[in-house]
């Protein structure tokens, strides 16, 4: 997302020293979670990396390279790595795997086979005769009631270990789509709470001191999905780490009924949870339907049982052939699921990718590689020859398909002419300034009649097509 903002930020060149003759650019790039750069995101990143590579490259007066960045990429789930890296960082990149294979698979000096048993357990569950939603509600209720059994065992001990109990209080439910999240989110305060209370009363009877398990459940669920603002996501993660279950968490009203507050019981998550989230309190997860690829399944389920023993319940759909196959081969698959990771597909030089990213490419290059073009009011000084170096670099990277390169050249000339035309005929001065003729438009400012090429992304995740609706009031 920070790279996507380079087209908008005047100061971006300072990070690269790309306009300073006596300073060196970054010489080491560490790309974490390489497997995430796949599909549409990987494709637009691969094209945009050509500009990042140029900003990290220092040349002398004769055009010879003095300094070029080395890239280290890390991932736990990858296949087809050579092709993926060449699509992302250029065909001239030589790929070396680290750590290298040793003389023994048990001990390669850099890594050894652990003798400890895994802290994570997988349970496969594939019902028949019920819909996946009905089954999911029942499993959630059983998982919530299981907390009461642990609590009852806890309060009978002299040394009440609430710290361990806290590690299994919060339940994470993983979904493959936002649609599935929405379905269950609407059922938390109704069916899930009712199923939990009914099951709990059936097992333990009507006990007021145990009602805290389901009372107010709808106020203690959160989402970790893309439809939640980034600032709220950070706040939620902070709460999940800091709001733990202690002895003081359980409150009692004047009627003797117990309830809890200031703690999170239920997390509804999509693939946002797969990376970068390391919360020790996540140790119970329900995965609703086999994720679309094995790497995603490994990454998502690895959020639990990282430090303490964890449980992953796989709810599979008997009506889906892929889910059924995973259930039938559940044990051998989980004993060696890393070898089932699929190859990654990236197509950075296609018509759709070029149309989506070319304007960002041009503005980023001109602002941060051409001297004097970084200030906001420098857009008026554009010259078509500024783009010659960019054109040469893209040709060097993606010249294997003459038809697509011809399309790139045509689009590049169109945008170059359009920029020049805006300066000469419309008085263009600024890259972006409200109320003025400017070059850039934010995605949310796009109008039906606007030039689609100059709507510049502010996030690499803005890869979906937007639909604009105008409502006409009756006259």
What does this protein structure show overall?
- With 475 residues, this protein is α/β, with parallel strands linked by helices.
- Helices cover 36% and strands 10% of the residues.
- The protein is built from 14 helices and 12 strands.
- It has helices spanning 13-16, 39-55, 81-89, 132-155, 162-166, 178-185, 188-204, 230-242, 294-301, 321-328, 330-335, 351-369, 388-397, 402-426, and strands at residues 28-31, 58-59, 65-67, 70-73, 120-125, 171-174, 221-224, 250-252, 258-260, 266-269, 284-288, 310-315.
- The strands form 4 sheets. The chain has a 6-stranded parallel β-sheet, covered by helices on one side.
- A hairpin with a 5-residue loop joins strand 2 (58-59) and strand 3 (65-67).
- Helix 4 (132-155) crosses helix 7.
- The longest helix is centred in the C-terminal third of the chain and has 25 residues, at 402-426.
- Mean pLDDT is 87; it is low at 448-452.
């Amino acid at each position: 997302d920070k790279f996507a903002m380079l087209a908008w930020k005047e100061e971006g060149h300072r990070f690269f020293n790309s306009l300073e003759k006596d300073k060196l650019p970054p010489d080491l790039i560490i790309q974490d979670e390489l497997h995430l750069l796949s599909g549409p995101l990987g494709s637009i990143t691969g094209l945009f990396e050509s500009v990042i590579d140029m900003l990290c490259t220092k040349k002398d007066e004769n055009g010879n390279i003095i300094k070029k960045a080395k890239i280290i990429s890390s991932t736990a789930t990858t296949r087809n790595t050579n092709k993926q890296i060449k699509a992302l960082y250029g065909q001239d990149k030589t790929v070396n795997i680290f750590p290298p294979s040793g003389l023994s698979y048990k001990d390669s000096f850099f890594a050894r086979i652990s003798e400890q048993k895994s802290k994570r357990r997988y349970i496969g569950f594939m019902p028949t005769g019920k819909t996946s939603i009905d089954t999911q509600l029942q499993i959630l209720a059983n998982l919530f009631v299981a907390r009461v059994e642990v609590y009852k065992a806890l309060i009978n001990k002299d040394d009440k270990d609430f710290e361990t109990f806290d590690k299994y209080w919060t339940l994470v439910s993983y979904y493959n789509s936002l649609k599935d999240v929405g379905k269950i989110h609407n059922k938390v305060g109704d069916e899930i709470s009712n199923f939990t209370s009914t099951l709990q009363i059936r097992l333990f009877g009507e006990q007021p001191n145990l009602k805290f398990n389901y009372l107010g459940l709808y106020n203690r669920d959160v989402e970790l999905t893309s439809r939640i603002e980034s600032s709220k996501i950070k706040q939620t993660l902070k709460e999940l780490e800091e709001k733990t279950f202690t002895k003081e968490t359980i409150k009692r009203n004047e009627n003797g009924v117990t309830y809890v507050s200031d703690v999170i019981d239920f997390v509804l998550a999509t693939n946002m949870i797969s990376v970068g989230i390391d919360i020790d309190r996540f140790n119970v997860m329900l995965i609703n339907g086999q994720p679309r690829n094995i790497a995603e399944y490994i990454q998502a389920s690895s959020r639990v049982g990282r430090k303490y023993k964890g449980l992953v319940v796989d709810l599979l759909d008997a009506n889906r052939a892929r889910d059924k196959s995973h259930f039938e081969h559940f044990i051998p698959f989980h004993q060696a699921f890393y070898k089932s990771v699929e190859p990654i597909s990236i197509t950075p030089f296609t018509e759709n990718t070029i149309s989506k990213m070319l304007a960002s490419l041009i503005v980023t290059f001109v602002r941060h590689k051409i001297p004097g073009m970084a200030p906001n009011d420098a857009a008026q000084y554009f010259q078509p020859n500024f783009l010659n170096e960019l054109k040469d670099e893209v040709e060097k990277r993606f010249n294997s398909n003459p038809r697509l390169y011809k399309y790139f050249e045509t689009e590049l000339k169109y945008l170059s002419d359009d920029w020049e035309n805006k300066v000469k005929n419309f008085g263009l001065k600024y890259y972006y300034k409200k109320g003025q003729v400017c070059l850039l438009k934010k995605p949310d400012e796009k109008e039906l009649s606007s030039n689609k090429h100059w709507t510049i992304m502010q996030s690499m995740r803005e890869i979906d097509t937007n639909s604009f609706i105008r409502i006409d009031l009756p006259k």
